[in-house]
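Notes from hallway chat w/ T.B., transcribed later so I don't forget. T.B. wanted the structure written out for a chain they're using in a teaching module, and asked if we could keep both sequence and structure tokens in one place. Agreed to drop them here.
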Amino acid sequence: MNLKNANKKLIIKYLSAITLSFISPSVFGQIFSTAQNPLSVKWNYISSGGFKIIYPEELEKEAQRMANTLPYIYTRIGLGLRQQKTSIPLLLQNRGTFANGFVQLGPKKSEFYATPPQFFDSQDWLNNLAVHELRHIAQFDKLTGTQAHPFPELVYFAYFGAGIPTWFFEGDAVVNETALTYSGRGRQPNWIMPYRASILEGKKFSYSKAYFGSNKDVTPGYYQTGYLMVADMKEKYGQFISDSLLGDIRKRPVRPYPFSKSLKKYTGENTRQYFLATQNKLAEAWKKQEEKSTTERYESLNKKSALATNYFLPVRLNKNQILALKESKTDARYFVIINEDKSEQKLFGIGYQEQSWFSLKNNLLVWDEIRYDPRYKQRSYSVICSYNLKTKKFNKLSSKSRLFSPSLSEDGKKIIAVKVELNNHFNLVEMDAASGKILKTYPNPENEILQTPSFDKTGNKIAYIGVTEKGKTLWLMDGDQKSALISNSRQQLSRPVFINDKVVFNAHFNGIDNIYGIDLSSKKITALSASKYGAFNPTETEDGKIIFNDYQINGYEIAETSITEKPAGENNFIDFSAAAEKQENVGNVFDKIPDSTYQSKRYHQALNLFSIHSIIPVIDNEYVFGLELQSNNLLNTMDFYSGAKYHRDLKRFEYTADISYKALYPVLSVLYRNRPKRTFYRAKNAVQQGDWREHYIKLNASLPLSFNARNENYAFTLNAATSFTQRYMSENMPTNFIRELKFPMEYNFTFNHSVRTTERDIAPKWAQVLRLTYDHQPFDKNLGGEILALESFLYFPGLAKNHSFLASFNYQKASGVNQYATEIATVYGYNNILAKSKLQNSLLFNYRFPFAFPDWELGPLAYVRNFRAGLFCHYENIGKGTTFNDPKTYGVELNTSVNILRYQPVVDLGARLVFVNQIYNQNPILEFSFNYSF
């Protein structure tokens, strides 16, 4: 257990973690990373114009480029917020295989994950991150100032989280990235496609639902919502409206709903009113676009769902069956076969993918998925897996690889894939589909970012996408010769495939993502689909048609059409950032970047273990409170906390220090407490009060390991700890008062296995948790005793989807000073029931299920996401005078997940009615719970 979690402190940091960590094209939805790199990574750094760029030595070239880029573009990025200088460390990460970027406080830093996704904007990846994340840096600086203060970062964290909605921070940054470049997500039709589809289908959203999402429907997302609202603000109120809003909030921070009130000051509307007005404006604009666009309706080949559901990358197995990757609000991603009558057959689940991807040829199915390093979670791999539909055999074709978008040749014997090196060099590699051996590497001297390659039917030609700051290029490789079919386009070109004499691909020439073909001889481009909202992922069928994804209101559906060529059409896309682009008047901020060479120096991990950033208030309970100094270093390898607390009931101070070193394979921790203590004891026929102080030191070593393969997750944790306590300044203590507690030993082993879950799951469909604990006193003759505990938690599917049944049997054997200790899970209501015997075992049965997803907006007070219920029946000391007819407690529980006062954290409110076995003469117990997550 983490030292900080062990203390169970209610501190400001926990109230703000989601809101102040800004993720760019986040794929995991993570807040920010606290994971480590392997100790073998060698780090360098470059100082340039306020940026301290820290990077693995393999990224020297990219670091030099960023050293030239970041100071140059920051003045333009910060102009609208009147910020021209900054000071911040920025880490380039290269060991992972997913795309991400963020800015955080506590400590203040930014991180760019250098490995790009296989589908993103039409510009260089690190530039893409820079133009977005530097706007977040400017936002921080606007609110906090660039001058050094006495460790305020986590206080600012809490202030931001409580005062400013995430949609504004992200929307402002997306408007900025779009207005300052020729790319940007604001110019991508597919990025706002879900919102457009909902509006044109007559489905509008409440402010809370658009902001916080839904457990049943596709919603716009706070990035998209924020972009559209901020773009409208800039159009109506000018280039500096964001500056005015943040400046007003900084001047008047202590008030309820500060952002909404500042927004009303400058626009006359609060956040909800402004959202609804913007939504009405969008509806009018998109209806005009619809009237100008020629579209077709396609019959859906999959069964309709009332929930958000996607059928990715459909391909025909035969004239009666379709294979696709399915995911929904109720199911994690898995391969499914869809029959002619739209009935479905589930094949198997797969692991996390950077983007949805698979290839099928000659009954062989290949796909890529992310696998994590067991210990160092900053390191991950993208491996290629295969499955033979005839033999039903799985095969992992690569290990510890960085391979993406595998595509099979027509005979299923070769694979073409993208390989990304640690120095961010990209190559196409040809592999043997049976062994995974790399047969050929295609040179890429310009080092374009390569995406989504595919073979033609002969296996001699390859089509793929290359990306640079100039745009996207559709390449044709024929042997060792390559030619550009489309050059340096700002179209969202993706997933080219060969069909007849054409290369067929996705683009948005008419302002809507559709399927297009380019003739290899004439290079004429024609449209092959005319979807109303978006068509993607075409595959040729045996009868000369194409089967593809047709986007509808609930997600990606499956459609099929004859290959009929149409004009590419006129671009009717509505660029909502046009006014902001005109205000900035920059063109592309990445034009004319300097090309200097900066001195790079070694970044020594051992000399950078401390990064003190905050002094924060801490509250343990209503009697204990104080201040704490916090340090977390930039590489997440060491945490240090030190503080002083006042015990109001004892009228004395406690002094604390915690340190945790996480760079090695085991995590090593030391905890120190100098604290006051008080006890009451009986002597001389009276209750006596005794006081003392004590030095308490605890040493802990933990080895957390976890693995993932397809949709299965495994975790093992080994933990060993000991402590030493020395008591002094005793007052009114008995003569037998023990003054030293010498090195009690604690051991713990935990095993966890689970399958992937979805947002509607209360618990994994299948999971097993086993925990073994042993504590004893081998070095202290005065304190004999031990405790052995075994816990088991077994999760099973319930009677309906997303229902969960938990069976938990737990056993402990305790003696000596530990005889009354509790190391196992107990029955509900345990602390409110007078015990009749020592705890030896417990048997717990819980059945939980969701039953409503209302998406209720209760004004500004709450947004109700779901309701869940549960039944439980718990036994204690089974077999020790207790039978299955005599549960100790049983009852019902009701929970709901809500967003309170329009804040981002999801609050879980619960009530539990516990009935107690009549032998205890105990009235029913009503318990309430309050938890939150981000």
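Follow-up for T.B.: Confidence is low (pLDDT under 50) at residues 1-31. Might be a good example for the class.
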